[in-house]
């Protein structure tokens, strides 16, 4: 049994799943199969058989994997884009916290840093100018508002001044002029009467009389003029002046409102310019800080004590095409570079084929053998099973679905190193006394598990009850006894023959339907 396991472990995973039936036929033929006797040669046609076994049976799943550290620090490239490695510490060196591990090329970042510093200075000057401009705009706005309010107040005072001061004064002056004109007219008329009397008595000349008449007419005209001035003041001048002054008050009030709105808009615009310039300054400064941080990240130091293991070594690649980490190699952002194991505890990372998922459960015991440590065997436990197939394997072969499975190794891990290849035997079940036959001896007939049992020169199709299998042997729960011989290459079951015949007939019918009508060929 041990020799069979070693032979199985030496087979690569891909060939293992492809060549399982052929491999088991060869192995079982070498150790357990019996060929036909000379008496039965003609009837049995050299059929391979297997004598049903009874005894200990282990149901296990054999997989290959890689040893990895359980608790480790994964160091990734945090520089954006792609950059090259200028200096790299040797793999396998034990480092202390703070030691330089990798230095990446920072020449492009240095050039960008100089350009960014210029942008920061320009944006800072723009920000200062916008800040001072806001202060100027606020000051000018307050000055314009004060002036507009003063003009509005003066316009209101002018209206009040005219209604309550100037108009009463003008009205009084007009009334006084009428009074004076009336007195002047009375005196001129009295003088004219006396002049007429004196002229009749030949005391004054004709010229003097005419002068008094002229003076009386002039006084009469002055009175009429004063009365018209009063009427004009009351009916026209006062109304027009009041309307004009009220319009001045309204215009001053509207101008004041316009100036306030304009001042508010100017302040808002200045504040928006200030915020925009401040945001631009902060953004450019953030870019500058980010460039400085990126330049700092081009030198990667050890965050803790540990053994230097390149990520390409730790991850492993079953195809063997992973490019090793080296000076001059380009690395991308978030790419894993170095693993620093922090403790001695290790795990095994396996890839379980989808056909074995129904048997593998978390908590099952696992026996681990290391290719580089022959003769040593380690034990562990299934810790986790990925819910989705491995993306890399699926991309390389869409028909191959492997699920990453983690096995925690127990006890000491002396001699184990990250990246070592291992073979894992996941123990699903152990039976001390079980009946079992090779997996290829069991076939499905009418939705039932069956085997062909050899009895003399004849074969008998018998239904059996099966349990778990380990891809080599299957546990027989009922229907067979130890010692009975079963065919390893059973013929087609009746149902299978019927299905195949039906498919063949259907295929022929399709060909006839699609073929040209040719009676000679059909015959």
Would you kindly provide a brief summary of this structure?
The chain is an alpha+beta fold and 523 residues long.
Protein model, in words:
This protein is of the alpha+beta class. It has three domains: 2-71 and 345-512, Elongation Factor Tu (Ef-tu), domain 3 (Beta Barrel); 72-105 and 298-342, OB fold (Dihydrolipoamide Acetyltransferase, E2P) (Beta Barrel), CATH 2.40.50; 110-295, Helix Hairpins (Orthogonal Bundle), CATH 1.10.287. The chain has ten helices and 23 strands. The protein has helices at 2-9, 13-18, 20-31, 41-44, 107-200, 206-297, 311-315, 391-396, 494-514, 519-522; strands at 33-34, 49-51, 53-69, 72-76, 82-88, 94-95, 100-104, 299-301, 306-307, 309-310, 330-332, 336-341, 346-353, 365-370, 373-385, 402-409, 421-438, 443-445, 448-455, 458-463, 465-469, 473-478, 485-487. Helix 5 runs antiparallel to helix 6 (206-297). The two termini are 60 Å apart.
Overview features:
disordered C terminus, Helix Hairpins, 523 residues, Elongation Factor Tu (Ef-tu), domain 3, 10 helices, alpha+beta, rod-shaped, 23 strands, single chain, six-stranded antiparallel beta sheet, six-stranded antiparallel beta barrel, OB fold (Dihydrolipoamide Acetyltransferase, E2P), 3 domains
Question: What's the CATH class of the largest domain, please?
Answer: Mainly Beta
Which range does the strand content fall in? 25-35%
Mean pLDDT: 82
Rg on CA atoms, Å: 58 Å
H/I helix tally: 10
Structural class: alpha+beta
Helical content, roughly?
Answer: 40-55%
Largest sheet: 6 strands, antiparallel
Count of distinct structural domains: 3
**Runs with pLDDT <50, length 5+?**
1-45, 317-321, 509-523
By CATH's scheme, which homologous superfamily of the largest domain applies? Efflux pump adaptor protein, beta barrel domain
- Which shape, going by the Cα principal axes? rod-shaped
């Amino acid at each position: 049994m041990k020799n069979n396991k070693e032979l199985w472990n030496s087979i690569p995973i891909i060939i293992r799943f492809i060549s399982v039936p052929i491999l088991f036929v060869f192995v079982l033929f070498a150790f357990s199969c019996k060929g036909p006797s000379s008496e039965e040669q003609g009837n049995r046609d050299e059929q391979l058989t297997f004598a049903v076994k009874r005894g200990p049976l282990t149901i296990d799943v054999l997989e290959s994997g890689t040893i990895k550290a359980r608790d480790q620090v994964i160091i990734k490239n945090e520089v954006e884009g792609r950059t090259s490695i200028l200096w790299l510490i040797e793999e396998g060196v034990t480092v202390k916290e703070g030691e330089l591990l990798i230095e990446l090329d920072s020449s492009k970042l240095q050039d960008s840093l100089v350009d960014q510093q210029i942008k920061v200075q320009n944006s800072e000057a723009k920000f200062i100018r916008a800040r001072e401009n806001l202060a100027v705009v606020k000051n000018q706005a307050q000055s314009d508002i004060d002036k507009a309010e003063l003009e509005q107040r003066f316009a209101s005072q002018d209206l009040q001044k005219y209604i309550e001061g100037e108009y009463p004064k003008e009205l009084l002056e007009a009334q006084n002029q009428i009074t004076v004109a009336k007195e002047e007219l009375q005196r001129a008329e009295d003088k004219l009467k006396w002049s007429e009397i004196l002229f009749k008595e030949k005391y004054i000349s004709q010229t003097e009389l005419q002068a008094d008449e002229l003076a009386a007419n002039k006084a009469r005209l002055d009175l009429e003029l004063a009365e018209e001035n009063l009427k004009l003041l009351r009916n026209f001048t006062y109304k027009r002046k009041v309307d004009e002054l009220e319009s001045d008050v309204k215009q001053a009030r509207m101008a004041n409102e316009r100036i306030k709105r304009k001042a508010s808009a100017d302040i808002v615009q200045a504040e928006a310019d200030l915020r925009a310039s401040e945001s631009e300054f902060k953004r450019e400064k953030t870019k500058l800080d980010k460039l400085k941080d990126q330049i700092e990240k081009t030198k990667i130091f050890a965050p803790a004590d540990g053994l230097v293991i390149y990520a390409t070594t730790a991850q492993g690649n079953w195809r063997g095409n992973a490019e090793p980490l080296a000076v001059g190699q380009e690395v991308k952002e978030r790419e894993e570079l170095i693993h620093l194991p922090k403790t001695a505890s290790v795990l095994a990372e396996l890839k379980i084929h989808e056909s074995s998922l129904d048997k593998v459960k978390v908590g099952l015991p696992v026996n681990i053998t290391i290719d580089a440590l022959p003769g040593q065997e380690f034990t562990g436990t299934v810790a986790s099973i990925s819910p989705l197939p491995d993306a890399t394997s699926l991309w390389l072969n869409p028909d191959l679905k492997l699920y990453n499975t983690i096995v925690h190794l127990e006890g000491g891990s002396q001699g184990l190193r990250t990246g070592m290849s291992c073979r894992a035997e996941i123990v699903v079940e152990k039976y001390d006394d079980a009946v079992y036959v090779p997996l290829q001896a069991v076939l499905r007939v009418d939705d039932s598990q069956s085997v062909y049992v050899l009895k003399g020169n004849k074969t008998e199709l018998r239904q059996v009850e099966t349990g778990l299998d380990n891809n080599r042997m299957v546990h027989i729960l009922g229907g067979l006894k130890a010692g009975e011989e079963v065919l390893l290459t059973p013929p087609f079951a009746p149902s299978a023959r019927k299905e195949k015949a039906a498919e063949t007939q259907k295929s022929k019918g399709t060909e006839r339907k699609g073929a040209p009508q040719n009676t000679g060929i059909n015959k």
